Amino acid sequence: MASPCENCCGPLDPKKAIRDELMRGRLAAALLGNKLKDTEIAHFVDQIVGSLSKSLALLDAANVVAVGSSSSDVREDQNSAGKVEIENLAEDCKRGKHGKRIVLSPCRQVKSRSKDDGYKWNKYGEKAIKGFTHRRSYFCCSHKGDPGCNAKRHVQIAEDDNSMFIITYIGQHTCKRDATDQGQSSHCGLKNQSMISFESSDYNINVAQNSPILTSGILSDMKPDSPMSENTMMNPNPEIDEGFMLNMGMASDYYGDLDLDPLEYVDEVPPLSNDYDDEMFSFDEDEFFLFGN
DNA sequence: GGATCTTGACCGAAACC
DNA sequence: GGTTTCGGTCAAGATCC
């Protein structure tokens, strides 16, 4: 499916567009920091620059994310109605007599050791699913009644590893909660940074495509002995021992406009040492201007 | 007492015949 | 086109804090 912009402006590279915007922001912050040298404000500017650098790095790393062990198990097809049909999530998921296919709305799937992703969920149901040993739990956002947040998720114990959870996210958090809510930060009470949120629907990127490993940017300059493997993505918060999730914003917006994989599957990421931050994302001015240009 | 969880019933959609 | 099967949701009661 071609994006609307593609019709008038030619092929759009959303990843590049996001990257360009982040670079612009980083450049502006760096210049501001230069102006504010020796002031307390410069410290905060440094944080902004560092944050943008991380975003760029994670964006690049998004292309690295392997679909994980289940990649070969998941076959998906986007039909004309925009629904995603997933056939046999697991090899041992046999069809019943009537072999009903599993049909999901555009969603993201995450494998995690913990069910906790920083959001507050209300459980509204549980169901035994044919072909799966464990029951599936259904959750909706606790703030559903707030501004009508329609975010939902399904949680199921992984068939191949009972210590892992397969979490399927459907819809987007539209609730607006302040950063103090439950000690969590920013949008809808997200309490950790293991999620990147590109809320704007102007740009959409696909993290599940078979992109080259560490295509460009900061991560490509990482030390070879860094604690990140080729097929995994960094968890920005080493204290959170769970799968790393990328929130690409409104799934329907995202998949409705672009012919992209509607389902991302981000495999588990090993926790990192506490000093990864400086090692991975140290800001180098020469490097920055190299990327910034 | 409010929030959250559990669980059976119900509904709509897809597959089968 | 009717029937069957299934996944998803609802809602009432139970439990927890």
UniProtKB/TrEMBL annotation:
For the keyword Signal, the answer is no
Name where it mostly resides.
nucleus
Instruction: Enumerate the subcellular locations listed in this protein's record, separating them with semicolons.
Output: Nucleus
Which residues are in the WRKY domain? 116-173
Name of the molecule in the record: WRKY domain-containing protein
Please list which residues make up the signal peptide: none
Which GO terms fall under molecular function for this chain's record?
DNA-binding transcription factor activity; sequence-specific DNA binding
What UniProt keywords apply to this chain's record, in alphabetical order? DNA-binding, Nucleus, Transcription, Transcription regulation
Q: Which domain of life is it from?
A: Eukaryota
Q: Which Pfam families match?
A: WRKY
Record keyword Transcription regulation present: yes
Q: Which PROSITE patterns match?
A: WRKY
